[in-house]
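Field reference: sequence -> structure
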Amino acid sequence: MSFATRAWRHKSFAVGAVLTLALILAALVSLVWSPYPPGDIDIPNKLAGPTAAHWLGTDSLGRDIASQLLVGSQNSIVVGLIAVGIGMGFGVALGALASARRGWVEELVMRASDFTFAFPALLSAIMLTAIYGPGLVMSIVAIGIFNIPVFARLTRGAANAVWAREYVLAARAAGKGPWRITVDHVLPNIASVLIVQATISFATAILAEAALSYLGLGTQPPQPSWGRMLNEAQAQMFQAPMLAVYPGVAIVLSVLGLNLLGDGLRDLLDPRLSRSR
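Structure field:
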């Protein structure tokens, strides 16, 4: 049975892939088209319900909700890609270094990872905001830094298991150095684990960006953000509760889709789990 056939028969993967593709499609569509410019204010039509002109209604300033949701998906994609890229790039390199060198190098990398874990993304963002001011860049940096020890620890653990395999021992006996073995044997054999973690970290990054924007530390006006839409909806919770429902549902579906996608990839890329299905 081909990988594609097994993938679409796997319910978690299929649902996760559809939701993730919907998020990506929304971001791509918003690059070239949205019902209205997301920052356009129309006070006479504020807090309007869904109509043919405004599919999901308008907020307290008369801005089109559908347009803000579409354009806001761009931030989620950008933050997820760059933050996970930062974490994966530095984390995989450090984890591979720790596994290849062992000894004091491994101890230093692991203790540095433990120290970084003491500063979660939210706390790091608050610290960076106090120094450089709030903004999307600071959110990306904070989330990216938090992802580094995640990938470092995962890479080190998975790589240590590969280093104990017979084919790696044979490569060492043949005279290959640690870096050549890492590139030729270790990284290809742990790639599936890293891909699964990347999808899960992507979901975490979207959730973290929404939380930071909700607190006013992330994306700044006039750029739309799902987290800031939730913050602005607080004042109209009883008058227009759907203002909070729309961005909340967008965040939930995006995070759920990426988590289901990661869960499905884990099952599909692990030969032992694939054979058991």
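Note: The chain has a mean pLDDT of 90.
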